[in-house]
Amino acid sequence: MRLGLMLGYAAGQMQLPIELVQEADRLGVYAVWTAEAYGSDAVSPLAWLGACTRDIRLGTAIMQMPGRTPANAAMTAMTLNQLSSGRFLLGLGLSGPQVVEGWHGVSYAQPLARTREYVTIVRHIFRRESPLTFEGRHYQIPYRGEDATGLGKPLKSTLKADPNIPIYLAAIGPKNVELAAEIADGWLPIFFAPEQYDAVFKSHVDAGLAKAGKTMDGFDIAPTVSVVINDNLDVCYNMLRPMLALYVGGMGARGKNFYYDLAVRYGFEGAAAEIQDLYLSGDKGGAMARVPAELIDAVALVGPRERVRERLSIWRASPVTTLNMTVFDVATLRSMVELASE
Q1: Are the C-beta atoms of 24 and 5 separated by less than 8 Å?
Q2: Start-end of H helices in the chain
Q3: DSSP three-state, residue 303
Q4: Cβ distance 33 to 6 under 8 Å?
Q5: What predicted TM-score, i.e. pTM, was given to this entire model?
Q6: Is residue 11 over pLDDT 90?
Q7: Which residues are within 8 A (CB) of 169 and not within 5 positions of it... i.e. 6 or more apart?
């Protein structure tokens, strides 16, 4: 199990932990990942970080598909891959209906079908075997709508591409997880609970792999895992409660919150309902207080160093192949590299 470093997206002010990323590069960490929601984008930081590092791979976790045409995503991936001497990892995801329709201003309907078409187009562009044409339900290339000029023509990228740029998909819902296993090179889950893999995820991963005639060999399961090493366990829990309360309680409307649904599948239905009710009523502090320690332990690594060492064994025993750490300082990064090498 190799290590990755998850930076997420900026809140308020755009800042990059250059020292942290450069130390991760020096220590042999596999990849650094950036994210986007409805502020900072995932691509610009990676271009900056790519110029400041030598070996660490540069991944988007994720680029929002509804915010870019498939061709634009492919152009970005090919460009960054060349600039970084082949270090780019293309992580794609759907985001959610609040962001897709409320921020990007496009439909969220039929997300799985859109994802399948999107990845197919991107891979076609990477291969450069022929000019791009595609006839799907959601994408038609060249465009032939009622308002088309009729001047569109099939094109092939002027930039040479690596046809094997890895494509990852973010997914937590059953059907989306199955699709990721079928059509992607890797899977980027958030709030992944390794002890729940067999009950919640395994059948869907296996089904997707079977559809594609693939095995687990070469399929990168790369969850994001928050890590807080501190002798005071309560301090650790309280550092992560705001994030879990935000996602379970407020990252989506009532009845359409994927993170709430995941917490329920993990067996925390009562706590999830309380968190959501409090968060949506405006009592964010109350929602944070309701996040169970057991949920935090299920999806994160927290506590004194020895406790983290013990609980890391749970992750080692799971199918996880890349552990994308969210850490807050260089000391924790170094500790995790040491623990992972034991």
Answers
A1: yes
A2: 18-27, 43-52, 70-83, 97-99, 111-127, 174-183, 202-212, 233-245, 258-265, 269-280, 284-289, 293-299, 305-316, 330-340
A3: strand
A4: yes
A5: 0.96
A6: no
A7: 62, 91, 92, 93, 115, 119, 176, 179, 180, 183, 184, 186, 187, 188
